[in-house]
Structure formats: C-alpha cells, structure tokens
Amino acid sequence: MRVVVLTGAGVSAESGLATFRDAGGLWEGHDPMVVATPESFAADPDLVQRFYDARRAELARVEPNAAHRALARLEDALGDDLLLVTQNVDDLHERAGSRRVVHMHGRLRVAWCTACDGRHDWTGTLLDLPPCPGCGAERLRPDVVWFGEIPYEMERIEDALWDCDLFVSIGTSGVVYPAAAFVQYALSRGVTTLELNLDVSDASTDFHVSRRGPASELVPAWVEGLMAATGAGPVSG
Ligand SMILES: [Zn+2]
User: Fold this and answer.
1) Residue that wins the pLDDT comparison between 173 and 28
2) How far is residue 228's CA from residue 235's CA, in Å, rounded to a whole number?
3) What is the dihedral of CA 98, 11, 148, 164, to 10 degrees?
4) Secondary element (H or E) of residue 156
5) What sign does the CA torsion over 45, 133, 105, 214 have?
6) For the chain, how far is it from start to end, CA to CA, in angstroms?
7) What is the Cα–Cα distance from 224 to 217, expressed in whole angstroms?
8) Which backbone phi and psi does 142 adopt, to 5 degrees?
9) 126 CA distance to ligand 1 middle (Å)
10) How far apart, in whole angstroms, are the C-alpha atoms of residue 107 and residue 144?
11) Residue 17: what pLDDT?
12) What average pLDDT does range 131-139 have in this prediction?
C-alpha cells in the first residue's frame, strides 16, 4: 500500500510550538502572516530575521510528540511506500526518527544564501548577518517558503499523490494552497482520503473519512490500525 501523509501545524502544536495562525494574533505588534513575505524582508530584514531567529530558538525547547513518533514507525513499516510531506518548518519529524520528509515550506534550521544559492544547516541566529560558509557573503536568509513564493518539491509530491492508494491529512486547516488542493487531486485519481484534525476544517467534507481529536491520540491509533491491517505490525515504541 502506498501512502502519502501531509502534516500541518496541528501536529507541532501539541509539542508546544505555537501555530502560525493561532500564535495569539500579533508578534511584536505585527501579524505573522505579514512578516512572512518577501516584501517584508525587503522592507525590514531585521524584523523578519528576528521573527525567524526566535522561532528557530524555540525548537531547542520542544520535543516530538506521539504523533511524530507514530509516523516514524509507519516509515519503518512501509519504507519507500510512504511519503511524508509536511507544511511545518520545524525538525520534529526528523527528531522522532523519520528520514524521508518533504518540507514543502522549507526548514527553520537551514540557512539559504541568496548570493551563491547554497544551503547550510543552521541552529544559530541570522540577524547578526553571519557570513555564508560557502561564499562568505552576508546574505543568508531562513530557508522557509514565504507567502507568494513557490513551495518546494511540488512535482515529487504530485507524482506521489498520483500513484498512492491512501492520502492522509493530519493537523492542517485545509486553507493554505497548494496543500489545500491535495485532497481534490487525490480524489480525482480515485485515492482513498482520510483527515485527522482537532476541529472540523474547511476541507473536512471533501474527505472520505474525517476524524476529530488531538493528533497525539488519533495518529498512533490510525498507524497501529493500518499496520495491523497490512500485516506490517505490531511495532513496539
Ligand atoms: Zn553563499
């Protein structure tokens, strides 16, 4: 069975990371949705760098939860038949043990040099304009996809959706495109679709099955059930 899983902010929220939309509205008096744009970066790079430096620092204070760990077990069981796509820019899937993760909106812990196009693992700050390890230019920005920029690896994701048997959307509001269109794309291919989300989402009625609850409960239950049904489980952990 080939499975494509899409995860969103709801999965990281249970680890204590404020979701982008539920962050309490304002960050230092600014709407986070407005901070995360190329236009904001051009107008006030320090503001945008401080925002992402703070979010990167936050990662050191959180741990993966049961939903991340269950998805890592699913990868152990399905191998290449699972594609895990995340809208999250944190590294909690990797820290839970997932190895093949498509970060369609980029990664907080990677710096991208706009001078040489190099990408470098990064845990520190960027506000202080550190030199690029590759070319020395002081032109590093967070390797995250801002509003108005094109998400990463869309072709790979669409190929996987084209070929899969099951598409599962976890902890995502269903309003940010292009991810919001994945369910329609999957349905057009006759793929079975499942939504696991805390609340009813704008897309809930599109899915064959939609379950409500915390990801840390719904995801382990779904993974154990799937592995039992496919003869891949049970797997401890
Ligand atoms: Zn460079």
Assistant:
1) 173
2) 9
3) 60
4) helix 154-163
5) negative
6) 22
7) 11
8) -60, 140
9) 13
10) 6
11) 86
12) 98
pTM of this prediction? 0.92
Please write the tens of the pLDDT for every residue from 77-112: 999 999 999 999 999 999 999 999 999 999 999 999
Question: Which one-letter DSSP state was computed for residue 14?
Answer: T
Q: Residue 25: which region, alpha, beta or left (left: phi > 0; alpha: psi -120 to 50)? A: left
Candidates 85, 86, 138; CA nearest to 111 is 138
Residue 192 in tokens: 């079975």
Round to whole Å and give the CA distance between 141 and 21: 22
How far, in Å, is the centroid of ligand 1 from the Cα of 45? 17
Q: Which residues surround ligand 1, an ion (CB under 5 A)?
A: 113, 115-116, 118, 132, 134-135, 137
Identify the bridge partners of residue 144 per DSSP, sorted by sequence position.
106
Tell me how long the chain is: 237
SS3 string, 79-106, reads: HHHEEEEECCCCCHHHHHCCCCEEECCE
How far does residue 112's CA lie from ligand 1's centre (Å)? 8
- Tell me the pLDDT band of 147, cut-offs 50, 70 and 90: confident
**What is the set of active-site residues?**
105
Ligand 1 centroid – CA 117 distance (Å)? 6
